[in-house]
Amino acid sequence: MEMCIRTDRIELFKGADRFSNQPHNHGHWYQVTVPIQGICHFTMENKPYQLCGDQGLIQHPGTEHFLHLDTAASVIIIKFREDALQLVGEPGACTEFTEKQRMNPHELSRRFREWTSELMFAESIAPLAAQETEMRVLDYLRNTLSGSHGSGSRADFRGGLVRDVHLNQVLEYMHEYYTEAVSIEDLAAIAGQSRYHFMRTFRKCIGVTPYQYLLRLRVGDAKAKLRNTSVSVADISCSLGFSSVSQFHRIFLKMAGMTPGEFRRG
After folding, report:
1. Going edge to edge, which strands form the sheet with 10-16?
2. Cα–Cα nearest to 47, from 70, 26, 71, 23
3. Using CB atoms within 10 A as the burial measure, which of 1, 98, 101, 143 is most buried?
4. Which residues are in the HTH araC/xylS-type domain (predicted)?
């Protein structure tokens, strides 16, 4: 059994039940291999490993490796681009991770289910939501993996706290273009920050993620249209940038506590 979801900067993979692959390497990607159940027989640069329990293993870009699983065994593999955790002032530099990593398989399994569930639908429904999930995966890796990117140098990642004027410009942009397909790159560029620091700063200052804030603006506008016009629910949904009426219904119900039709009748 195999499952794989990929974005621009990460790849989430799960293999199980005697899964195996051939020797290969990833030119510009790191790989984190974590056994979830049973034993993962792993070979890296001709050196054999038997991974089990909380024993994770890092493969740096260009490192040849392959694996096979026992019956009823499973493994989660996370790949991320080599520049995803890059340090300030070191463009093109490679982060060096400790080869062996301790990772909680139960926590990783739970997070993996959340990430893959979100990414399966987010890319087609709302690119901003998919980008936020991608950032949460990278944030998990940044906080979990040990290596030269660790907590001692975390303050050296690109960017610092945005000034209020930049955050205000981001909010003004979102208020003007909330019906459009806004991206993390657009917002981070306005704030003058890396994607990672923008996400952290926005949530710290505003209390929600950029996507959640965007949905608040859309639902607020929807309430006004439902209350003050006779425009159909389908047309309101389309005008506010929702991918479908069902998505609009689901988000409106979650945020308003009732369906658009119930809100209009009330």
Report:
1. 2-6, 10-16, 74-81, 29-37, 55-59, 100-102
2. 23
3. 101
4. 168-266
* Cβ neighbours of residue 176 closer than 8 Å, sequence gap 6 or more: none
| Cβ atoms of 21 and 33 closer than 8 Å | no
User: How far apart (Å, rounded) are the C-alpha atoms in residues 245 and 51?
Assistant: 47
Q: Beta-strand (E) ranges in the chain? A: 2-6, 10-16, 29-37, 40-44, 47-51, 55-59, 65-69, 74-81, 100-102
C-alpha to C-alpha distance for 108 and 261, rounded to whole angstroms: 40
* Cα separation, 170 vs 165, whole angstroms: 9
The number of residues in the chain equals: 266
Looking at residue 95, the DSSP 8-state letter turns out to be P
If DSSP codes are grouped into helix, strand and coil, which group holds residue 162? coil
Give the integer Cα–Cα distance in Å for 153 and 149. Answer: 6
Q: Which residues contact 128 (CB under 8 A, 6 or more apart)?
A: 181, 182, 183, 184, 210, 211, 214
In angstroms, rounded to a whole number, what is the distance separating the alpha carbons of residues 30 and 9?
A: 11
What pLDDT shows up at residue 94? Answer: 52
Q: Residue 198 in contact with residue 128, Cβ under 8 Å?
A: no
Over the chain (266 residues), what is each successive 10-residue block's mean pLDDT? Answer: 89 95 93 96 95 92 94 95 64 67 94 91 70 89 74 36 68 91 90 86 86 91 92 95 90 92 91
